[in-house]
Each structure stands twice: as structure tokens, then as C-alpha cells.
């Protein structure tokens, strides 16, 4: 059973081949339970080099490693799974290529997509959002807010990971919907120590604050 509770996604604006291993490892020490590598503006070679370092760090600490969008990259670095968007490679094709033990996640942005994803026998979990405004995507989908998140959690037959603009100041509102996990990008890597950033979120999740 995968622990999706604190799903940390790398941020290409602040991480590169020189610091990504240490940053990811610090996030893991802080309490990250899943690491996803995501990059949109880098070359395939740069992505391979960075993802390979993330694979090394996650393997060393026995943390599931997911690659965003790119199944080819995920397979090349021997990741544990891939996270696909609505316009990416079809889920059944990804499953056929990657095999039964590969983790496949799917992004959803509204309740219709959640319902459709629940019918997909090859999906292991869904991401739902953006819950709040986010700057990590150039053209993000409309924000859902927590009301729709709560509905998504109720109707989904799959684990739901909330994503989009989640940080220490608003995570309590998200946690009230009882998603399987929260995904963070900027909250982990934008400033400060990833260990401290993630640790604060971990404590929120565990009800220590």
C-alpha cells in the first residue's frame, strides 16, 4: 500500500543537477512519502540526469519515485511510476508498456474527470486540483477550491491526492476533506530548507500543531 500522505514534487525553477539530490533527500528526511520529478522546460538529457539523481536518492531511502508526464523517462531511470495528464499517453497504453507493478497516476480537474478516472482499471491514484491558485504551471486549470475537493474524495474509488497552491497556511483546510495525500511543489523548494519546509507540513498532517 502506497503512503501518498505527503507527495513532494520537484520544482525546476529552483532545482538542477547540482542541488537536486540534496534537496530531495532533505525533503525525505522532513517526511515526504512520495517524490515526483517534474520538469517542463528542460532538455531530455537534462531531465534524464536530474531524474537519475532523484532515483538514486529515493531508492537509498526506499521512497516511491514518480516521473511526471514522461513514461519514456520514467522507464529510462527505473522509476516506480508515472503521473499522466488528461492529454498525455492513454492510461491503457501506459499500462501495457510499463507492466502491472508500475504506479500510474492521473490528473483530474473536475468531478466528471474524477468519475471517469474511477472507471479506469489501470489507474492507481488521482491528483485533484488545482485547489488554490498556483504558479508552477503556465496555463493551470481553474481552481477547484476545497468544496470540490471534498466532493472528489467522496465520489472517487481511487486515492485522491490534492494539489495546487497548498502550503503551511492553507493545508488545514485541505486536510478537512481527508484526501489520501497532499502534493506540494513551492511549499517544499521555493525558499529555505526543504527539510524544515516539509517537516512543518508533516506535523500538520499528523495533527501535531
What are the defining features of this structure?
single chain, 209 residues, alpha/beta, TIM Barrel, 8-stranded parallel β-barrel, 9 helices, globular
Q: Fill in the CATH topology.
A: TIM Barrel
CATH superfamily: Aldolase class I
The CA-CA distance between the termini, in Å, is 27 Å
**Percentage of residues assigned to helices:** 25-40%
Tally of alpha and pi helices: 9
User: Radius of gyration from the CA trace?
Assistant: 16 Å
* Multimerization state: single chain
How does this model look, in words?
The chain is built from nine helices and eight strands. It has about 210 residues and is of the alpha/beta class. Strands 1-2-3-4-5-6-7-8 form an eight-stranded parallel β-barrel, surrounded by six helices. Helix 1 runs parallel beside helix 9 (about 195-205). It has one domain (about 5-205): Aldolase class I (TIM Barrel).
Topology:
Blueprint: E1 6-9, H1 20-30, E2 34-37, H2 44-60, E3 65-68, H3 71-76, E4 81-84, H4 91-98, E5 103-108, H5 111-119, E6 125-128, H6 145-155, E7 160-163, H7 171-175, E8 181-184, H8 186-189, H9 194-205
Parallel strand pairs: 1-2, 1-8, 2-3, 3-4, 4-5, 5-6, 6-7, 7-8
Helix pairs in contact: 1-2, 1-9, 5-6
Binding site for 2-[(2R,5Z)-2-carboxy-4-methylthiazol-5(2H)-ylidene]ethyl phosphate: 134-136, 165
Function: Condenses 4-methyl-5-(beta-hydroxyethyl)thiazole monophosphate (THZ-P) and 2-methyl-4-amino-5-hydroxymethyl pyrimidine pyrophosphate (HMP-PP) to form thiamine monophosphate (TMP).
EC number: 2.5.1.3
